[in-house]
Specification:
Distance between the termini: 51 Å
Shape: extended
Helix content: over 70%
Number of domains: 2
Number of helices: 6
Oligomer: single chain
Mean pLDDT: 89
Radius of gyration: 21 Å
Number of strands: 0
Strand content: under 5%
C-alpha cells in the first residue's frame, strides 16, 4: 500500500510541477489526478494495491473535510457579512448544475437510443 500512496503523491507532485512550469490555471492536484488517470488508462486497469488504497481513502473521506469545517468556523463573521452573495451563488450554481446535468442526460440518452435499437433489430 505504501507503493500505491507513493505513486499517488508522485502524480500530485508531477501535476504541481507541470502547473508551475507551464503556468496553467488548473490546480496541481487536479493535473496530477489527470496524469494518474492517463497512466491507469495506458496500463489498462487499476492495480489491486491502488484500488485498496483508494477504497481506504474513500472510507475516511469525511476526515478530510474537518479542516474545511474549522476554516468555516474561523471565518464565521465574514460569512455572516457576505451571506446574501454566498447564498445566491450557492443557489444559482446548484440550479445550473441540475439543469446542465438534465440536459446532458437528455442529449446522451437520445444519442444512445439509435445504437441500442440497431443492436436488437427492433424499433420503437
Amino acid at each position: 500500500m505504501l507503493n500505491a500512496l507513493t505513486l499517488i503523491l508522485c502524480c500530485q507532485l508531477a501535476g504541481e510541477l507541470l502547473v508551475t512550469a507551464t503556468g496553467l490555471s488548473v490546480p496541481g492536484p487536479v493535473c496530477g489526478m489527470a496524469l494518474l488517470f492517463g497512466g491507469l488508462v495506458l496500463r489498462g486497469g487499476i492495480p489491486d494495491d491502488i484500488g485498496r488504497l483508494a477504497d481506504t481513502l474513500l472510507g475516511n473521506l469525511s476526515l478530510l473535510f474537518v479542516p474545511a469545517g474549522v476554516g468555516v468556523m474561523l471565518h464565521l463573521e465574514l460569512l455572516r457579512a457576505e451571506i446574501v452573495p454566498i447564498s445566491v451563488g450557492l443557489v444559482v450554481s446548484t440550479l445550473l448544475t441540475i439543469a446542465v446535468t438534465g440536459l446532458m442526460m437528455q442529449w446522451l440518452s437520445r444519442r444512445a437510443t439509435p445504437a441500442a435499437e440497431g443492436r436488437d433489430g427492433k424499433t420503437s
